[in-house]
Specification:
The complex is a heterodimer. Chain A is α/β, with parallel strands linked by helices. Chain A contains 10 helices and 11 strands. In chain A, strand 2 and strand 3 form a beta hairpin. The longest helix of chain A has 14 residues. The chains are: A alpha/beta, B mainly alpha.
């Protein structure tokens, strides 16, 4: 299979109240192009799921939304990504506040080798969000509560974060991201290393977080996409094939590639 | 046959036996017989059984032959010599060997002539016997194993069993050598502590190991308080670590976090070249270049600087140790998972915040391990301090003074004429024991820390 010539994304890639808008985004690793002309809006307070077969560029696209790709030397991004109307790839933009506004949760839980408390307070400390110890305590408690972890860890805040179970570690990482008060949270297959019960908890959490945050989640599980998201974007070989309401994508997909993928003919 | 011819014969037998064994197995399996193992396993089995027993016998032979011959010859020495005791017998025996092996001397037959002639005959017979035994072992082992090649012979398991024993023997050699060294140092140290009390050695503050060798010699009675040596070692090691740890660590951080792959590719080996410079070169660099510069600088500031200062030796040793710290730290920093860095960047941390607060704490146990190994290297370092730090056992904390170290004193104690039962010589073993124990303890602690670190991420 190769990329489709003169492809236009089908469905409804744009929306009326976009938080993030990608316009003609291309991503290159050296000479190799990984993403082709993707244009997509991510609306305020919605959960959008990015699905597609392995290597289709969905993670690469996600990482370009808060310039995490900058840490890879050979990676180059073209086009525009607007956060509240401002291009985040503008040379004047500083990535530090950008990444605080657009937080990220990774595939494998990656707590720092510090205590639970220090894991959460790390972000607020480096951004100077707390003026006193009391403030910091409050941020830690609030973040852990929002991530649904507070009751489980409140008696051992100073034991190492690496000692938690996988699911708890991932919720710790979500709490850590919430602690810097982002507006958008990017999640790169956040449940792929977790068991079904821990996965269910994270999915529940995502649904609650939607009230306050805009969330983009990459997932390999179509059931998960169906459970947590309002819109679903289907990527194929670096192209955005189809974007539609999640119900529609899974019941009446417009594009034949989407249909082939969700009915399990490849992927 | 001489040992070298025998060894060559064994090597040839090794190849031959392998081919014979393999071919027999192949022939069998080409006749449609299902063999238990691959043909190469049968070849290896025949080769092992052909060569290992003769090699083992040869080794034992080489160890035992001189002793047995000595015993036989001693019995034949004239009574007058045997009555003279151990030393006289040894002297006579070495004369016998000289007579027997040098045709020019054979003419001067004296008292020992008949013994020497007997030795010649004995040597000829022994050589013949040795050749015969080894060759027949080769043939016997090869033939017996070759005949054992049958479809149900479990050649693979047998070969693997033998290889396992060989591997065990190799590791046992390393361990036994360490134990042997430790035992000899310990034994001599005990002799030393019979002459000098342990408490005086460990807590005495005066070091002056000169003792009179002969009764008519004027010399001090010797005092063996090793504290000045310990403090000298500590002072120089501390100076060295004060240079090596910050510089090495920062070099490691630059190389692993900031340098482009190109720079890293060039800079890392270049830094490791420092570790390849012979320490004697560092030694004269310290003594002839650094020490005079420090002396000049110090004097221009009105300080009194000894021409052989602890500072010069410590500085140069610190430079020598930089690659130890940087190379090991670089490895552990690289072993910190990228996901931790991503997590930190994802929260909006800058590169330096990430390094200071996430990467270094995660790598800290490994870095501590690297530093510990560097410390034990600094304590054991000899050549630089021998050339640049001086010999005066001063009890001082002033880096501009000249001090001496444990290693330097070991060298000076063992250079030149000495008696092996004088406390002066034996003191070297006691110092060696202290050095051994300290570096062993440091290495042990370092390894434990590194292990603990590994458990966290693997």
């Amino acid at each position: 299979m190769s990329i489709i010539e003169n492809h236009e994304t089908v469905g409804t890639p744009f929306c009326s109240n976009p938080k993030l808008s990608a316009r003609d985004v291309g991503v290159f690793y050296g000479d190799k192009q990984a993403i082709f002309d993707v244009s997509l809006d991510i609306g305020s307070n919605e959960v959008i799921a990015l699905i597609g077969p392995s290597g289709c560029g969905k993670s690469t696209f996600l990482r370009s939304l808060n310039r995490m790709n900058d840490t890879i030397d050979i990676c180059r991004v073209t086009g525009e990504i607007l956060l509240d109307g401002e291009n985040i790839y503008d040379p004047k933009v500083d990535v530090v506040p950008l990444r605080a506004t657009v937080g990220m949760v990774f595939q494998k839980p990656n707590p720092f080798p510090k205590s639970i408390y220090d894991n959460i307070s790390y972000g607020p400390r480096i951004h100077g969000l707390a003026s006193s110890r009391v403030d910091l305590d409050e941020i830690v408690e609030r973040s852990l509560q929002r991530a649904g972890l507070w009751t489980e860890v409140k008696d051992r805040l100073h034991s190492p974060g690496t000692g938690l179970s996988g699911g708890q570690q991932q919720r710790l990482c979500i709490a850590r991201t919430i602690a810097v008060e982002p507006e958008v949270i990017l999640m790169d297959e956040p449940c792929s290393a977790l068991d079904p019960i821990a996965t269910a908890k994270i999915e529940e959490l995502i649904d609650e977080l939607r009230e306050n945050y805009t969330i983009a989640i990459v997932t390999h599980s179509m059931q998960q996409a169906a459970r947590v998201s309002q819109r679903t974007a289907y990527f194929h070989l670096g192209q955005l094939i189809e974007v539609n309401n999640t119900d529609m994508v899974f019941t009446t997909p417009e594009h034949q590639l989407t249909e082939a993928y969700i009915t399990g003919r490849f992927g | 046959m001489t040992y070298s011819t025998l060894l060559i014969a064994v090597l040839i037998a090794l190849g031959g036996a392998y081919l014979l064994g393999r071919n027999r197995a192949r022939t069998l399996s080409s006749q449609g017989i299902k063999m238990h193992s691959l043909a190469t396993h049968y070849g290896a089995l025949v080769a092992l059984w052909t060569t290992l027993p003769p090699l083992l016998i040869l080794l034992l032979w080489a160890l035992l032959e001189p002793r047995v011959i000595d015993l036989i010859l001693t019995a034949q020495l004239p009574d007058s010599i045997r009555a003279g005791g151990e030393a006289e017998i040894r002297l006579a025996l070495s004369k016998v060997y000289n007579l027997a092996n040098d045709s020019d001397l054979m003419g001067q037959q004296g008292l020992l002539g008949p013994v020497a002639e007997h030795l010649q005959a004995l040597q000829a017979r022994v050589t013949l016997l040795r050749g015969g035994v080894i060759m027949s072992l080769l043939l016997l082992g090869g033939a017996l194993t070759w005949r054992r090649i049958q479809p149900d012979l479990r050649a693979r398991s047998e070969v693997e069993g033998i290889v396992r024993i060989l591997l065990f023997a190799s590791s046992a050699i390393a361990v036994l050598t360490t134990l042997g060294i430790l035992a000899s140092v310990l034994f001599e140290s005990i002799l030393f502590f019979q002459k000098v009390p342990v408490t005086e050695f460990l807590f005495g503050t005066s070091w002056s190991p000169q003792v009179a060798l002969r009764a008519d010699q004027s010399g001090s009675s010797g005092s063996f308080g090793a504290v000045p040596l310990f403090t000298g070692t500590l002072l120089i090691s501390a100076i060295a670590m004060a240079i090596a740890v910050p510089v090495g660590l920062m070099a490691a951080i630059y190389l692993s976090e900031y340098a482009t792959p190109r720079v890293r590719q060039l800079a890392k080996p270049a830094l490791e070249v420092l570790a390849g410079i012979p320490t004697v070169v560092y030694g004269f660099f310290a003594a002839l270049t650094v020490a005079p510069v420090i002396r000049g600088l110090g004097e221009s500031m009105g300080l009194e600087v000894s021409s052989e200062s602890a500072l010069a030796a410590g500085l140069v040793m610190g430079i020598m140790i930089i690659p130890f710290v940087s190379s090991l730290s670089d490895d552990v920093i690289n072993a910190v998972p990228q996901s931790l860095r991503d997590g930190s960047y994802g929260l909006g941390a800058t590169r330096s915040e990430t390094i200071r607060q996430v990467v270094i704490p995660a790598a800290l146990p490994g870095i501590v391990g690297a530093v510990m190994l560097a410390v034990s290297r600094a304590i054991g370092e000899t050549m630089i301090v021998a050339m640049a730090a001086g010999l005066a056992a001063n009890l001082t904390a002033n880096p501009l003074d000249s001090v001496t170290t444990v290693t330097v004193q070991i060298v000076t104690l063992l250079v030149g004429d000495q008696e092996f039962d004088s406390p002066k010589t034996l003191a070297a073993f006691a110092l060696g024991l202290v050095l051994f124990v300290v570096t062993l303890a440091l290495n042990y602690v370092a390894l434990k820390i590194v292990q603990k670190y590994r458990e966290q991420y693997d």
